[in-house]
Amino acid sequence: MNDLIxxxxxxxxxxxxxxxxxxxxxxxxxSFDIIQIISALDDEYDISIPAAEIIPANFNSAESLYKLxxxxx
Length: 73
Prior knowledge:
Blueprint: H1 2-11, H2 31-45, H3 56-59, H4 62-72
């Protein structure tokens, strides 16, 4: 999980990813941020995130992103 937090902070260092649970619902992340996150996760974890998985529930928090990565590994 710490590696994921570091990846997210590299993309947006102004967000408290450890505590924020409304990254999408709160409109904190832009669509460009989401694309950057998907690309970084693909590269770091050697996974492919299918379009069906690109939903707010999977991107609202670092924890939900971590669960997504674990499922796709």
